[in-house]
Amino acid sequence: MISAAIVGGTGYTGIELIRLLSAHPEVSIDLLTSRSEAGTRADEIFPSLRGVSDIVFSDLGDNTLATLQQCDVVFFATPHGVAMQQAEALTQAGVKVIDLAADFRLQSLADFEHWYQQSHACPELLKTAVYGLPEVNRDKLASALVVGNPGCYPTTAILGLKPIIDAQNQQAERLIESRIVIDAKSGVSGAGRQAKLALNYAETTDNFKAYSVEGHRHLPEIEQGVAQLLDSQFTHRIRFLPHLVPMIRGMLSSIHMELTEAGAAIDWQQAFEETYASEPFIDVMPQGIYPDTRSVRASNRLRIAVHQDNERAELTVIVVQDNLVKGAAGQAVQNMNVMFGFDESMGLNFAPIVP
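Structure (tokenized):
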């Protein structure tokens, strides 16, 4: 049994972490922090946790670091810039850190400072942090001290592109043309639990809009993930456009590419099935069947469909996930399982909720 702390437990990802870790047979949540709700039981604020957890929120003040150092793993479900203030001292004490914000996602210090508009508190640790996508970095995660949990959009994009990149690494000829278009839609919970006018019921219901059209901070994360998978130099141009749709949770990304003659000769349905045959949480749909967001609701599943049109020389990959689970808290628990040598599916092998 390992001891876990959750820093910042009042957001949607924090709530999901409490739900998931409370059901994990090898984890004890020994610390849950919140400055605004200190002294209050979590199930008083979130009735869904009644009978699941009776833990009380703490505001440790000056003793925060010393108390966190007594745990085996600390999850930071906090805004960007919080985890990096304490990660170095925690790792020096032998504590493993999983950050659900962006502090340890981007390896480039310049990219982090540009997209997140702040200086990094521990750039040396940034160099050794592991990007927490188990399907890509499972071996590195096994010995990781600091993990940057991926963003929700990059999870769908990178896993949707991985079989194509794997195939490209085995071919001398280019398989797809240089332009990749990622058209992504997310439920409003992806924007967090803050009280914002744009997230009000009257603003989001019966409404559908694009945002961050000029450039989204998940774009460099997607580009980094693709570049790290490629054996050759990254020369593709990725156009990423996110949208907010009127649903609470769920994400669907449609990835569009043009195939070269060599790319059209490949059976991409078979390539995806072979790539993910042994992955516990990735489901490649049968040819001609396309997943919807409800099919993964409240689960750690990620479903992928592939449509190959050789007449038009086009390939479309459709990826769905729950943005709060596989796109956030569930993936963090999956990473923890790998880091501590547990079965990767432990505490996560449950069916989606329908309807």
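DSSP finds 13 helices and 13 strands in the chain. The two ends are 34 Å apart (CA to CA).
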